[in-house]
Design a protein that fits this description.
- This protein is mostly beta strands and 261 residues long.
- It has 4 helices and 19 strands.
- The protein has helices at residues 56-62, 151-154, 201-209, 254-259; strands spanning 4-10, 17-22, 25-28, 31-34, 40-41, 48-52, 79-83, 88-89, 94-97, 104-105, 108-114, 130-137, 160-168, 179-184, 187-193, 219-221, 230-231, 236-241, 245-253.
- The strands form 3 sheets. Strands 1, 2, 3, 4, 5, 6, 7, 8, 11, 12, 13 and 16 form a 12-stranded mixed beta sheet that branches. Strands 9-19-18-14-15 form a 5-stranded mixed beta sheet.
- The relative contact order is 0.24.
Length: 261
C-alpha cells in the first residue's frame, strides 16, 4: 500500500503535523505508530456542518412522509445543522452515554475540510476549495423527526469524534465513490458508499455556498446513510472510509467519560 500524506494532531503537541500514512499506521519523527493503539487530538478546528437527507436510501425510508406537512415535498436545498465545539473529540477518545439513555446511534460521515473561503462556488470548481477529507462519527441519541432540529439528541458533549487525520485532497481520487464501513466490536454492521449521495460532494459544496459562506477549516459532512448502527455502553465503534482513514472510539457512561477531561 502506497504512502500518503496527512495532517494529524498528536496529543501533547502543538499544531497539526504532516505525517506519512499507510493504512492504519503512520510515521511521525521516523517512528511508526498504529492508530488503534493511540488517543489522538482531533485534526479539525472549524465549524462542523452536518447534512441530513443526502443519501438516497435515507430519503427512501421516509416514503410518503416526505410529501406530508410541513414541507409536502423533497428538500429543494441542503438540510443543514451544526455540531458545535462541545461535541468535537478525537480518535481513541470516549463517547459519553448520557444518564438515562440506553443506546446511541453511530453516524458514519465523510468530512469535507474546506481549504479556503468559499462563496457562491460553481459545481465544476468546488473541489478546488477542498483541503482534504476526514472521518467523522456524527453520534446522536436515536430520534424520529427530521423536521424538528434534534439539538438535544445531536449536540451533546463528545458527540462528534473526528480524525484520525485529514487526508490530502490529492490522495482521494474520487470522493463520490468511497466505500464506508462501520464495525461495532470488530463486527461489520454497516456498509455503504458515497456513490449513493443525492448531492455529490461538488454539488453539495456549490449548493451550500449559494446561500452561506464556508470559511477555511470548516467541515461539511456529506451525510449519514440509512440504518445507522446502534451503540451501547462498552461498545467500540470503528468507521473506515476508503482512501481517508479509520476512526475508532469506545462508548462509556458519562462518569467514566468525565475522567478523561
Amino acid at each position: 500500500m502506497e504512502l500518503k500524506t496527512a495532517l494529524l494532531k498528536m496529543a501533547g503537541t502543538s499544531g497539526l503535523k504532516l505525517v506519512q500514512v499507510r493504512g492504519e499506521e503512520f510515521v511521525y519523527k521516523e517512528k511508526t505508530y498504529q492508530t488503534n493503539d493511540l488517543i489522538l487530538e482531533t485534526p479539525i478546528s472549524g465549524t462542523v456542518y452536518g447534512t441530513v437527507l443526502n443519501y438516497k436510501g435515507e430519503l427512501e425510508l421516509l416514503g410518503d412522509a416526505v410529501h406530508e406537512p410541513p414541507y409536502k415535498k423533497t428538500p429543494a436545498a441542503p438540510v443543514l445543522y451544526i455540531k458545535p465545539a462541545n461535541t468535537i473529540s478525537g480518535h481513541g477518545m470516549l463517547i459519553p452515554l448520557p444518564e438515562g439513555v440506553e443506546e446511541l446511534q453511530a453516524g458514519a460521515a465523510l468530512g469535507i475540510v474546506i481549504g479556503k473561503k468559499a462563496v457562491r462556488i460553481k459545481e465544476e470548481e468546488a473541489l478546488e476549495y477542498v483541503a482534504g477529507y476526514t472521518v467523522v462519527n456524527d453520534v446522536s441519541i436515536p430520534y424520529s423527526s427530521v423536521y424538528r432540529p434534534p439539538i438535544m439528541q445531536k449536540c451533546r458533549d463528545g458527540f462528534c469524534p473526528a480524525g484520525p487525520w485529514i487526508a490530502a485532497r490529492e490522495d482521494v481520487e474520487n470522493p463520490d465513490a468511497l466505500s464506508i464501513r462501520v464495525f461495532v466490536n470488530e463486527v461489520l454492521q454497516q456498509e455503504t458508499t458515497t456513490a449513493n449521495l443525492i448531492r455529490p460532494v461538488s454539488k453539495l459544496i456549490a449548493d451550500v455556498t449559494e446561500f452561506m459562506t464556508l470559511e477555511e477549516g470548516d467541515i461539511l459532512l456529506a451525510g449519514v446513510s440509512e440504518n445507522p448502527p446502534r451503540l451501547k455502553d462498552g461498545d467500540t465503534v470503528k468507521i473506515s472510509i476508503e482512501s481517508v482513514g479509520s476512526l475508532q472510539n469506545r462508548v462509556a457512561k458519562e462518569e467514566e467519560w468525565m475522567v478523561q477531561l
